[in-house]
Amino acid sequence: MIICPHCESKNTVSFEARNRPKAPYVWRSRTCKDCGKKFTTREYTLEELANLMEKDSKTVVNLKDQCDDLLEDLAQLLSQYKNG
Fold this sequence. Notes:
alpha+beta, about 25% strand
């Protein structure tokens, strides 16, 4: 269940979803139907979360790649808000 971080409503809708080739999550752009605010989510399966929690060097590399992907997504969102 997705909850709006602005008003805590459960009434949200997803307008865009992206799969990253190396990332174990789906990135979604969402809008709250109650307050109208936009936000994003990164959605993992339970299996993917379990893999991320393993303590080995491969996991650290995966986490770095995911952080890089997240920063790229944030940069795109910021440019959209500035231009829109």
